[in-house]
Predict the 3D structure of the following.
Amino acid sequence: MMKKRRGDSDVFGLSFLDIISCGFGAVVLLVLISDFAVNEEAMETKYDELSAQISKLANLKSDLMSISEEQKRKSSGVVDTSEVNEMLTARLSSKETILENQLSELASMQVMLDSLVDDIATKKRASIRSASAKRRVEEVGGIPVDSEYVVFIIDTSGSMKDIWNKVTKHIENVINIHPTVKGFQILNDNGEYLITAYKGKWIIDTKKMRKNSIELFKIWGAMSNSSPVEGIKEALKTYGKANQKLSIYVFGDDFTGGNFDQALNEINSLNFNKITKSKIARIHAVEFSSPRRSSTRFSILMRAVAEKNNGTFLSI
């Protein structure tokens, strides 16, 4: 009778994953306990090291798949390997989940580290560039771009994910038409944050922060129910201040909420300064056409919202 035996790659594969997982855990710990009150060169060094680790971790998912396939091939001639294969599959799935979580954490840390690096450079330039700063453009394509702060609210439902590349491109375009602002933020239509580490805070507006935020946006896995009202309310409650110029951009293709009048009244009520009797934020809307969309509910609601809140409605 043939004896059961494990695939030769079992010990090596799992040990390799254990070592990699511990290694990246150590990197995360070092970043968390590091003293960020250091000079710019030290910041840049940490940034480069962290970027390299993220790049390696991003490729590890495909390595996991390769290991899994190799184990299946090597176990093809083994008698009754079902229990072994089930164990390997469970352990590989667990490792993959851990590594994906670490990738997300490291990406968020990279964004925060970029903020610290660029903040140092910005402070160094402030005293010599303030007098020569160019006058900001007041309007582009009918949309005022004189805001100090910008919030993007993006529908992350399945129909929008079908055209995610197109959505990403237009978000980049909107960011690029704005002069340098003091801060920006990205939420989905249900009020979930792209970068949870910045929940309730502003992402500092620098080239690196814009670039890294877009890269994270491309792989954003959040799902939603195509109801922009929740996201708008979160933005106004958290970031609507009377003493700052704020613009909110809503990107979507549908509205699955209930009563139009109720939604409009809730938004108008939150976006109103009772002391100055003026709007707190401009609310713009960009409507997308997607293969699954068969409704005009988004345009009906957001045209009214834009009109009542000094904004512009665009259909793409």
